[in-house]
Amino acid sequence: MRLFLSxxxxxxxxxLSQEALAQSKSPVVIWPTLTPAGDAPAGAALHRPEPxxxxxxxxxxxxxxATLRDAVQDLxxxxxxxxxxxxAGHARDEDLLARAARxxxxxxxxxxxxxxxxxxxAGGAGYLxxxxxxxxxxxxxxxxxxxxxxxxxGVRGLVMLRxxxxxxxxxxxxxxxxxxxAEAGEPRANATPPRSGGRAVLAxxxxxxxxxxxxxxxxxxxxxDPRVLYPLLALGAGIGVGSALLVSDEWDIxxxxxxxxxxxAWWGAGAAFLIAxxxxxxxxxxxxxxxxxxxxxxxxxxxxxxxxxHKPMDDGDAILTHSGAAFGLLLGGAGELFYRGLSTMQVTPxxxxxxxxxxxxxSAGALATRVSISPSRMLLIDLGIGGGALIGAALASPxxxxxxxxxxxxxxxxxxxxxSVAGGVTTWWLTRDGAPGRSSAFLPxxxxxxxxxxxxxxxxxxxxxxxxxxxxx
Length: 473
Fold this sequence. Notes:
Rossmann fold, alpha+beta
């Protein structure tokens, strides 16, 4: 059986290799550029541009013809110059396939690459360029359509031909474009994310929470025997991983979903533990059990939110939820200290931190279902909140360093909270997306700096740096 399968694999590999070799040996026929950029039903509308009727289209067509003929040879193919192109009315799709089935190499049935470029004016936007390629002995057509300005028709035609004749180069070009869009913060085009891409994140968090649950049960029982603890930790982690895998197999869990669920579990556990600690729950080990209960409640609320809204969370939504809980923790602690009016900062406000965490978690989790924000922008807002809090605390620090009275303490806390809120709002305002047409009347445009052009040299183009203004004056 193994020998039979190996033989089949070898035959398939040989067939693919022979097909690839045949296509590489096939010459390329470049038909003259036609207009308009489409395949008319009867083929009569497709014709060569006339210099007296539309000189601009004629000039661009001549440029495109010369560029494509040079590009074919640069790509390593053989240009077949004996084919003068189709006669009038015979440039339809089936005509391309019929020509591709006829070989231009004597004695070898390898077929022919057929390239049929088309162009038409697109008004003020430039020119619509359409290139149709029929592979040797193929039954399908490869088509690329792009709109290019007049000065870039030849360059865009060269890139389109390269992608059509070289599928591997086209795939590499698509990967590079996706990488550039990702770096620019744009969504990837034609990219289908894998199902349950957050499986690993969910499994890791579930394993850790399962271990924490086992640890809490062991501490609540009053046992400190490690011979009981370690098997319980392994059991809890195993149950957590198994549950995460079952959930990710049943539902499509994205990375954002996984981090959103982890926010509900961990911040919920932290809020419950802090509240129990602030209320001095005894015995002390029972506070771990309360933390586990809070984590289960938080995870349940997050799961219910995902189920009811039917909105897959992205990474920005997850960061918003985590940030809301952390901001609530700081505000809750500051609120308790403000309420007490202490003259010393040696007291830890566990209750306020716990309630603030719970309120921030629920509020941010609900807000994440209504808004959409990029991860980078959310992190910048977090940075603004932290920086604003530090600035406010620094400016008001003389209140607690010289004479730490309850009134001075409240003033310092107020300055810290106001600074954090102001920093967050300012960062949100500065990082907002500018809609078209929202520029001020007295500033009709935006400044720009960096690479503003390029200069051709003997060794290639060199960037030109400077400052400029984009807009109308």
